[in-house]
Amino acid sequence: GHDNSNYTDISNAISHGLDGVTHFGSAMSTLHRDSNLEKHLGLTETALYNDNLSVELIVDGKHLAQDVVDMVHKFKADDKIIYVSDSLGAAGMPAGEYMLGDTPVVSDGTVSYLKNMTTLAGSVTNLYKELHLALDNGVPLEKALLYVAINPRKYQSLPTEIKVGEKADFVIFDKDGNLKKVVLGGKVITK
């Protein structure tokens, strides 16, 4: 996301190792005409079309309408979908005015806007809330956990299994996705 690339740029990036798209749908290039007036794919369409590209979705209920999220789920394999929070420093804080670096922003408790309220500055929603938004929209718990926990680790080449004798960080959910325990460094942390 956040690009102005054309298909030539994107193809070149893919040939040099591009394997994922950040913040799908956020200020991304779309179909465009070249100098010969031929239409070519932008990053939005390429992210959906190319089976090798992972896509990161900010599923906070504001960045992407549910129909966009549903479209991505229809066209991308489950192992290529990653939910990200895009959370700013105001995450978990009450609605109000905050600073994003030197830029004043206004948070409504879900996202932050530039002070003029016409442009999103970022999300303040955490992944636990995104997990529940996904569940509320019919995503099965097993898939939602894949998008929130397993796929991001795989994309970063991090281990996805807990091994005996190693300290582990993980959370335990009930069958409805409610948080039951947090384990950090092998020690149970209470809520």
Description:
It contains 5 helices and 12 strands. The protein has about 190 residues and is of the alpha+beta class. Strands 6-7-8-9 form a 4-stranded antiparallel β-sheet, with no helix packed on it. A hairpin with a 5-residue loop joins strand 2 (about 30-35) and strand 3. Helix 4 (about 125-135) packs antiparallel against helix 5 (about 140-155). The protein starts with 6 loop residues before the first helix and ends with a strand. The relative contact order is 0.11.
Please tag this protein with its features.
single chain, 191 residues, alpha+beta, four-stranded antiparallel sheet, three-stranded parallel sheet, 27% helix, globular
Write a compact overview of the structure shown.
The protein is of the alpha+beta class and 191 residues long. It has helices at residues 7-15, 43-49, 66-75, 127-136, 141-155, and strands at residues 20-21, 32-33, 39-40, 54-58, 81-84, 96-100, 103-107, 111-114, 120-123, 170-173, 179-184, 187-189.
